[in-house]
Design brief:
Number of domains: 2
Order of helices and strands: EEEHEEHEHHHEHEEEHH
Largest sheet: 6 strands, mixed
Family: Belongs to the ABC transporter superfamily.
CATH architecture of the largest domain: 3-Layer(aba) Sandwich
CATH topology of the largest domain: Rossmann fold
Organism: Roseovarius tolerans
Pfam family, one: ABC_tran
Protein name: Putative ABC transporter ATP-binding protein YbhF
Shape: globular
Keywords: ATP-binding, Nodulation, Nucleotide-binding, Transport
Strand content: 25-35%
Bound molecules: adenosine-5'-triphosphate
């Protein structure tokens, strides 16, 4: 069964068609890169998947729950890391996580254990008592990732999560999220950077609101480096 399924999803801003009949299905234990140049429609798709936007055309199904008919159940299985950081810099890492847990109605019983486990997975266990303001950008992002796992979602959505990070921090996050996918999570990672995509990843290429390619990266790119393939298909002049 698909953990995340999108069927014929379309969206327009007035006359501007931002998404045009987008369809794909992702199973568990998948790292899927959603690659598209600026303006391709990635943010619009993320907004529809998280119900910030609603479309009357098409369907989104998370862990078997239809986003339009059962939004609370669908959203309960979705973890999200947005492009813009959403943490309180004055609180410690643990306080930020407790605050998020309270907002989501997670039971207090066993919460610290959940927080420790989530931080451990991201290599952040020893930073639980540090103020978010004192963390570097990469560690802040990892904290947001740990937080997105607290309610044990089956699908994790990340919208260009490496924006503003240096190369080492980017590589660390890319690695951690691949580990999460290997352990069973269905991950959708949006990016416009081909070097964040691995050959064995599931790749969706979005261009001008349409899916250009859907499959395993190494099959899609053939003999070409992915960056060359991507540039040739999206007509971006380097
Ligand atoms: N509020 C809006 N009103 C009108 N057009 C919009 C609006 N938001 C986005 N668009 C247009 O819809 C298309 C898709 O935009 P979207 O932001 O989803 O792309 P993106 O792939 O996320 O790009 P980026 O990487 O630059 O964030 C673009 O042509 C954009 O100009």
């Amino acid at each position: 069964m698909a953990e995340l399924e999108v069927r014929d999803l379309s969206f327009r801003y007035g006359a501007k068609q931002a998404l045009d009949k987008v369809s794909f299905a992702l199973p568990e234990a998948t790292f899927c890169a959603l690659l598209g140049p600026n303006g391709a429609g990635k943010s619009t798709l993320v907004s529809l998947l998280t119900r910030l936007l609603v479309s009357s055309e098409g369907q989104v199904v998370v862990a078997g729950h239809d986003m339009a008919r059962a939004p609370r159940r669908a959203l309960a299985h979705l973890g999200v890391v947005f492009q813009q950081p959403t943490l309180d810099l004055n609180l410690t890492v643990r306080q930020n996580m407790r605050y998020f847990a309270a907002l989501h109605g997670l039971p207090r019983k066993g919460l610290d254990g959940r927080i420790d486990a989530a931080l451990e997975r991201l290599g952040m266990a020893e930073r639980a008592g540090e103020k978010a303001a004192d963390l570097n950008g990469g560690h802040r992002r990892r904290m947001e990732l740990a937080r997105a796992l607290l309610h044990r979602p089956r699908v994790l959505l990340l919208d260009e999560p490496t924006v503003g990070l240096d190369a080492a921090a980017r590589a660390a996050i890319v690695g951690h999220v691949h580990d999460l996918a290997r352990d069973g999570l269905c991950v959708l990672w949006t990016t416009h950077l081909t070097d964040e995509v691995r050959d064995g990843d599931h790749l969706l290429v979005l261009h001008r609101g349409r899916i250009l390619a859907d499959g395993v990266t190494r099959h899609i790119r053939g003999e070409m480096p992915l960056s060359d393939w991507f540039l040739s298909r999206t007509e971006v002049v380097a």
